[in-house]
Amino acid sequence: MQEQSNVALDASRLTFNATPFNSLPMLQNCPEELSRIRRSEASIGVAGDRPPLRLLFALPGFHRVDRGAEIALLAVARELALSGELVTVIGSGDPRPDVPYHFRRVSSLSRERFEGFPKFPPLREETAWEDATFATNLILKERLSDFDATITCAFPFTHWALRLKSPARAAHVFVTQNGDWPSFNNASEYKFFNCDGLVCTNPEYFARNRQQWRCALIPNGVDTLRFAPGPSSRERFGLPTKGPVVLMVSALIESKRVLDGIRAVAEFEDAFLVVAGDGPLKDEARDLASNLLPGRYRQFAVPASEMPYLYRSVDVFLHLSKAESFGNVFLEAAACGLPIIAHDSDRLRWILGTDQYLCDTEDRQQLWQCLHSAISSGKKSAQLQMERFAWPLIATQYRVFIEAILSER
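^ thats the sequence. predicted structure below, dont judge the formating
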């Protein structure tokens, strides 16, 4: 496929600690993307005289869980609806009051039911089983002929269902919230991936896919009104009132390395670790913590509405995953003024700059030093200019990208 027309966010809007994203090696050879955004800047907040876009967002977890992908795409859907677009959201949860979009419920079986099921292509993990049940009901029960564009990050089944049921004129936008492997991998089910637009959530994905797909480089955002420094509420969460508290916000799955986090915090005799999340490794994490962190560990699921209070109640944010496509939690923690310890990478420096505690987290000594420094430094004012990540701006980039796709169909 010949190179597609692409869109990237303006470098001046994404300059983190004097390190603009176009200075990264992966984008130094893409100057045309950096200039094309000027056209979208002129249209920020302006829909023009055209009819409103009819947009469909579909994901099994919508209105049922508040994970990173669900939070990000619902924030975009909300802002687009508030700006005047006709937005429909389909998920397996229940309707919520006071949302500006139209919600339709399509049932699915939750991924937790499939944790012991066999895994094989294309049902590689419990999330794929969940996706399959949702997509089946989407095909059987929903009429999808009334939309100009569909948006999802679920592959393969929801992605296939939207393409199967939608009219030929509809544009299909895939968002790399959970990774970009469907877009470049030609093995097994991935060879059946296709889209009209690919939203890349970091520069690495953008550089890898821009030759094959029409791409836009758009980060996730953060609600800067909810996530901000404020008073501690440790009693609210049953946390100790004295001593440093380290927070991990993560699913308890292998790739998130929560067990490594337990081992790392255990080296600080007065530190308490709280894990906000759930998952199949919950029992293993509890057993390990009972041996290494007796009386200094707590794990629980936290509603999204409570997360700002939790961030304000801890001293340090620790996240050890090495393969995040973006990581909303980094923005949330930074907006609340927390020092952040995470695995060093170009994509994370693009988000956080160089003023956090990034290291090779597989190196025990480096991780210990970063934890020690972060605990000693204490909280700081939110140093990132968080308005760069405000959801209205992010949603506008989605709108501009979708308009450009539709204009060429």
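The CA atoms of residues 56 and 150 lie 5 Å apart.
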